[in-house]
Design goal:
single chain, mainly beta, Immunoglobulin-like, five-stranded antiparallel beta sheet, four-stranded antiparallel beta sheet, 2 helices, 17 strands, 11% helix
Length: 256
């Protein structure tokens, strides 16, 4: 009995150790030191192929994979990211905005707080806790802990690919836009899909998708033209998806 108890204790210990390792594997602590060269890979948090977050010596965060530098207080740096001043599980789509708008001009106030980072181009969410953030003209250093967050139950197929568990239509990105935006949607099963653009009077102006598509995370790009290839005027437009019995509609804003 004593030998059995000892073996059981050892098995439980290794199980807890392995579990902790798996949890830690989803968390990353990234640090860019003051005055460090932001053009070097080790000073960029390369989250995906198109989101590499870094900071110059005296500016805010930017995405060096998609922009040359911080775009200013009226811009959307880091491009390809949206932020919410709450944890991911407490956020909704209306909570997300640009990094600068979120912190209101006081990024150092973020230290110690946990935020939600959303990458709309990749449908990824992270909880981000800032550990440090150097003030203006003091070297551009910052550090944070980034933890991946699963927002829904994924289905893994036999070939290892991941499928969504429910239909969804996401907010277009960027929004507002000029003249190109991306519409994303989730298909949990193979479906006949229609993605259509309407003006605010309910008139159909563009059919983007009208075909059967395999299950998965899907997207389509709209270049603000109608079915005849002519550019549309600025304004609010609706985009709607019909897939099986699922129907959803959202608004977007075209600028000129």
């Amino acid at each position: 009995m004593k030998i059995y108890s000892n073996n059981l204790f050892i098995m439980m210990y290794y199980f807890l150790l392995i579990s902790a390792s798996v949890l830690n594997a989803d968390s990353v602590v990234f640090t860019k030191a003051d005055w460090a060269d932001w053009t070097l890979q080790e000073n960029q948090d390369r989250i995906t192929d198109n989101v590499w977050i870094t900071r110059k010596d005296n500016q805010s965060l930017f995405n060096i994979a998609q922009e040359d530098g911080y775009s200013g207080n009226s811009g959307s740096s880091p491009v390809g990211t949206l932020w919410a001043y709450t944890i991911t599980t407490a956020a909704d789509l209306a909570s997300y905005t640009s990094f600068v708008t979120m912190h209101g001009g006081s990024p150092q106030s973020l230290i110690g707080d946990t935020l939600s980072l959303y990458l709309p181009q990749d449908s990824l969410y992270f909880d981000v806790t800032f550990l440090s953030y150097s003030g203006s003209n003091s070297g551009g250093g910052f550090s944070y802990r980034r933890t991946a967050v699963t927002t829904s139950v994924d289905i893994i197929t036999d070939d290892g690919s991941v499928l969504p568990d429910e239909y969804a239509l996401h907010q277009n990105y960027p929004n507002p836009f000029n003249p190109v935006t991306t519409l994303r949607y989730n298909l949990p099963e193979n479906s006949l899909v229609n993605v259509t653009i309407y003006d605010m009077l309910g008139r159909q102006v563009k059919t983007l998708i009208n075909q059967t598509q395999d299950a998965g995370y899907r997207s389509v790009i709209w270049d603000a033209t109608n079915d005849h290839g002519k550019p549309l005027s600025a304004g609010i437009y609706l985009y709607q998806i019909e897939a099986g019995e699922y129907i959803s509609t959202k608004k977007m804003v075209l600028l000129k």
